[in-house]
Design brief:
Blueprint: H1 5-12, H2 18-25, H3 30-33, H4 39-52, H5 67-75, H6 86-99, H7 102-108, H8 122-125, H9 137-147, H10 165-174, H11 177-182, H12 186-194, H13 200-215, H14 224-234, H15 248-261, H16 271-277
Helix pairs in contact: 4-13, 5-6, 9-10
Protein name: Peptidoglycan binding-like domain-containing protein
InterPro entries: Cell_Wall_Dynamics_Protein, Lysozyme-like_dom_sf, PGBD-like_sf, PGBDSf
Length: 279
Amino acid sequence: MGVLANQVVAKFAPNAKPGYVAAFADPAGLLAAAGITTPLRLAHFMAQALHETGALTILVESGRYSAKNLGAMWDSGNWHRYFPDRAACVAMADQCAIDGGIALFSLVYGNRMGNGPRETQDGWRYRGRGVLQTTGRDAYARFGARCHVDFEGHPDLVVDAAHALKPALLEWSAKHLNAAADNNDIETVTLGINGGLIGMAQRRVWFARIWPFIIGAAPLEHSTEWKVQSALVAAGYHLGLPDGVVGPATRLAILAYRAAKGLAPSPQVTPDLVHALGV
């Protein structure tokens, strides 16, 4: 494999935390030992890692939720079981401003993933950390036992440069995500990491940016498809984040734009569309 993980980090995560930079230098060959030895596997792993960590700038999950953030969590259905109504969820923002999220995480992560009830503050202690945001006391204990590192007793070791890749790669392997990557199945990869499809659009964009770099192709931003999507977004057509893939949302935006401009109806990227958009 030509391009290495540390080259992806240098290209796409210029503000990465030093510990992550050191970890992805991978002197022990942990990525290869986990079977991440092909361009496709590396692209999928790095796309998930960069998404989960905000381009390797996030070591530990932040609990400083604003009222807007908490409202979004309620609206997405994530925290309905923990609050009687939306107003109670949003009101937690005042407490987050005081304690940084201790009460919030103790509540929403309590009594699950091996965590004790809220009064133990396990939900706070074992909140998301590291390359793939290891979460929950069970995961810290399980990965610690496999790595012979006391992650349960010392959770911050999950983001130590010497260990940061270890729990992430164990999770990757346990979910058989090399096979999903081989099939270029980003939804299965995301389900394995996230348990759902939260942030799917952003994960697709990370992959679409990283993949050409790894295989030595032109950058995503040079593709006609990406330029068309960007022009449509700029024109007020909300198709999501440009990713260079003409999917259902992009096709609907193209049809709407064509109708507004009096162009022949077609969901495809064609020369008349490119010309009209000034791409």
